[in-house]
Amino acid sequence: DAKTTQPPSMDCAEGRAANLPCNHSTISGNEYVYWYRQIHSQGPQYIIHGLKNNETNEMASLIITEDRKSSTLILPHATLRDTAVYYCIVKDGNAGNMLTFGGGTRLMVKP
Amino acid sequence: ETGVTQSPTHLIKTRGQQVTLRCSSQSGHNTVSWYQQALGQGPQFIFQYYREEENGRGNFPPRFSGLQFPNYSSELNVNALELDDSALYLCASSFRLAGLNEQFFGPGTRLTVL
What we know:
The structure holds 2 protein chains of 2 kinds.
Chain A: E1 9-13, E2 18-23, E3 31-38, E4 45-50, E5 55-56, E6 61-64, E7 70-75, E8 84-92, E9 105-110
Parallel strand pairs in A: 1-9
Antiparallel strand pairs in A: 2-7, 3-4, 3-8, 5-6, 6-7, 8-9
Chain B: E1 5-7, E2 10-13, E3 19-24, E4 31-37, E5 44-50, E6 53-57, E7 64-68, E8 74-78, E9 87-94, E10 104-105, E11 109-113
Parallel strand pairs in B: 2-11
Antiparallel strand pairs in B: 1-3, 3-8, 4-5, 4-9, 5-6, 7-8, 9-10, 9-11
């Protein structure tokens, strides 16, 4: 079972920041938070991951609370092409490659 | 650098038949994982292969089996197909077995079982 809870859907205006929340209250010390997204009819795409510090790359920023029980993925300037299902995944950094996907958040970016 | 490719893109089978799906890993990757994604749900892990051996399996029956070849390409075989096997089958490759590596997914094979 997925260890994360996400809202099933969210809307965002084009050009605005999209903030996608994720609850992972049972996360353990060696588990990382990963984000993937799946655009319609494509395979999932890696976005970012982090342990406890905030992370930023060319796609997004990841903000993890100090107690690590929740996180927020931020797309700073959402475009129509960011419309997708976003999955928040908790994974042991020392374990294999298995990813446990939950239901994700369906983000709709509107003009 | 070529990405992960899968074939065929779509497939229709009937109950009881057998199917083989194929995946070519991204260049330099030695680990491949397979996932099943039913309509409207997140992908579910089937198994992964590392250096031609199964290394980790999800909650799927033995009629789901796989192979990884020396060039790191892979096959997923499903015997005695059931209606519930209708799904998008995804493969993902990475360059090592464990750790913090990201996985690269292919576009998937859409299997319909009638």
